Amino acid sequence: MKSICTLLLLTISTTFMFAQEETEDKKKFTVEGSVDVYFRQNISGPNGEDAIAPNTSFANRNGFAIGMANVIGAFESENGKVGAVADLVFGPRGEEAVFLSGPSSNIVNQLYVYWNVSEKVKLTLGNFNTFLGYEVISPTANFNYSTSYMFSYGPFSHTGIKADFTLSEDFSAMLAVLNQTDATEFNFDNNYTLGAQLGYKSTYLNFLYGKQGGNSESTFQVDLTTGYDLSDDFFLGLNATYNDTDGASFYGVALYPQFKTSDAFTLGLRGEYFAEGEGGAGAIGGYDLEGDASVVAVTLTGSYSVGDLTIKPEFRLDSASEDTFLDTNQDPSNSLSSFVIAGIYKF
Questions:
Q1: pTM for the complete prediction?
Q2: Which of 62, 132, 242, 305 has the greatest number of CB atoms lying within 10 Å of its CB?
Q3: Calpha distance 206→163 (Å, rounded)
Q4: Which residues, including other chains, have CB under 8 Å from residue 261's CB and lie 6 or more apart?
């Protein structure tokens, strides 16, 4: 009996110690991420080796394809004062997201440290995803699986320092000093970009100003994002942006209505108008004599959840002002329709 009691006490003590260590570890370190794969086919355009796709980021490969594996490790002190995040990406989507990274960091999506100086001030230093735009790199945070023109030609990431301010219960602000957009590792041209944000509840007005790459003139971008639950089942989001570099510009607006039909299924639409002046960013690919062009892209997406797995069937129609696509006979066309079904697992 004495041996049994001793063994029982030892078991309880060991269990308590492991539970205590696990609790402490959870306070200090967490791991999360996602895996995404998809199938894509053109409806009104060629497939196979001649396959084409809209000039937007990600989900552009033909047939069965892989997106990326995303692993995010977060470290934080027990009092939540300081911490660090290492966000790593593997696969084609990840490679496209960090396209200006050097060979030593071509899997680094984010890598930063932070300090909560007070309840109202937070400093972040390192490489972090952009504060502009409605969409993001990770497919788990976007409703639509394919991405918009505005997202694809806006910033993906920044390296620098930013200060976030909580001004009141409803108002927030952010100021940042940054390297060239999407240059992850270091400042290779000794030019700096300024970033700013003013937030009111779920509405954010964003600014970016500074020299980018070999441009002789500074780039200026202003961007607005907002979104509200209009009812328990209906959400409406909006993104509008304008970018100018020495006269070459692009601008656009997109609406994101989403209707929840059940706990497991939501149907959403992205309707985007995107235009370029004097060649813009080269996003549309075909221009009139003045270098102007526009495109309307309508994307209908269903989102069905099975536990941590989300299945997203998606129909997309891109209609441009110029013949920038090909039809099934390989003839120039001003429109392209396509279908995607994606599987996204979040852990």
A1: 0.89
A2: 132
A3: 14
A4: 233, 267
